[in-house]
Design a protein that fits this description.
The chain is α/β, with parallel strands linked by helices. It has three domains: 67 residues, Winged helix-like DNA-binding domain superfamily/Winged helix DNA-binding domain (Arc Repressor Mutant, subunit A); 111 residues, D-Maltodextrin-Binding Protein, domain 2 (3-Layer(aba) Sandwich); 101 residues, D-Maltodextrin-Binding Protein, domain 2. The chain has ten helices and twelve strands. The strands form three sheets. Strands 3, 4, 5, 6, 7, 10, 11 and 12 form an eight-stranded mixed β-sheet that branches. The protein has a two-stranded antiparallel ribbon with strand order 1-2. The protein has a two-stranded parallel sheet with strand order 8-9. β8, α8 and β9 form a beta-alpha-beta unit. α1 crosses α3, α1 packs across α4 and α2 packs across α3. The chain is globular. It starts with 5 loop residues before the first helix and ends with a helix. The model has no long low-confidence stretch (mean pLDDT 84).
Length: 288
């Protein structure tokens, strides 16, 4: 343990993320043999086997996962330190729900004009970035924060409605209305099972949805599936991606989804962070 270094941790972290020695070596710019040799040295320093290796790839043992969590924390901390030191030049990382990446890109155009030397990294993801651990500098979330090191602001609330393609409506719902007891006869499209607790996913079940013919973690894939006639789906009423879809009326109104913006308290005095927050707030409130 006394000889454990960041270079050692980087090897294990890369193997964990890539799933094989070959892919980990490529990610680090090392040969597979060098990656394996350095992993052997790490296991020798730890006094135990950390990674099970087979022809199909690698699998970390429980002991190794604790070290991976340490390595991830160090990686995020180092990235945050680099971003903080660059101040008005460098990278500002913004994490948003997958389906909001296009909207947030538009909201940050004015910011780019005012801060041309700040590079933006906009990450659309299905998971929630840990802003408290500085995985991102700013994040937009669907749920409230519980961390006392974060500044949180309510951005806007949008209502969900049911949509389908024009062809699907013509063939199956010419009245453009889903009546009570009719939902079980139609296929639905939704997020993957990890997100079935979200209000709009529960609302589709309240309407009577029993079969989800297509699920995905990608909102773009969900929109495309509906566009191709795979079924009905719940989308935000004013989402520009839905402009070619037909709204289907329902007996039960769709839920309202609040959106929150969060950033670390340590960044409150950094002018480019405040400017980015203001740009996002201004755009969201103007288009809600």
């Amino acid at each position: 343990m006394e000889t454990l270094s960041w270079d050692d941790l980087r090897i294990l972290l890369a193997v964990h993320r890539a799933g094989s020695l070959l892919a980990a070596g490529k990610a680090l710019g090392l040969s597979t043999s060098t990656t394996a040799r350095r992993l052997d040295a790490l296991e020798a320093a730890m006094g135990c086997q950390l990674v099970y290796r087979s022809q199909s790839g690698t699998e970390l043992k429980p002991e190794a996962l604790r070290i991976v969590r340490l390595a991830e924390g160090l990686a995020h901390g180092l990235d945050a330190l680099r971003r903080d030191q660059t101040m008005l030049a460098g990278t500002l990382r913004v994490s948003v729900p997958d389906g909001m990446a296009v909207t947030l890109a538009r909201s940050l155009l004015a910011f780019r004009e005012a801060y041309p030397f700040v590079d933006l990294e906009l990450v659309g993801e299905s998971r929630m970035a840990d802003v408290a651990a500085r995985e991102a500098d700013i994040a937009v979330r669907l749920t409230r924060s519980t961390s006392n090191v974060l500044v949180e602001k309510h951005l806007a609330s949008f209502r969900f409605a049911l949509f389908a393609s024009a062809d699907y409506v013509r063939r199956h719902l010419p009245a453009r209305r889903l009546g009570k007891g009719e939902a079980s006869a139609h296929p639905f499209v939704g997020l993957d099972e990890r997100w079935k607790g979200l209000p709009h996913e529960q609302w589709m079940r309240t309407l009577g949805a029993t079969r989800f013919a297509f699920r995905s973690s990608s909102m773009e894939a969900i929109v495309e599936a509906v566009r191709q006639g795979a079924g009905l789906a719940a989308f935000l009423e004013k989402d520009p991606r839905n402009s070619d879809l037909i709204r289907v009326e329902t007996d039960v109104a769709g839920p309202t989804q609040p959106f929150y913006l969060v950033y670390h308290r340590d960044l409150r005095k950094q002018s480019h962070v405040r400017a980015a927050v203001t740009a996002i707030e201004t755009y969201m409130r103007a288009h809600r």
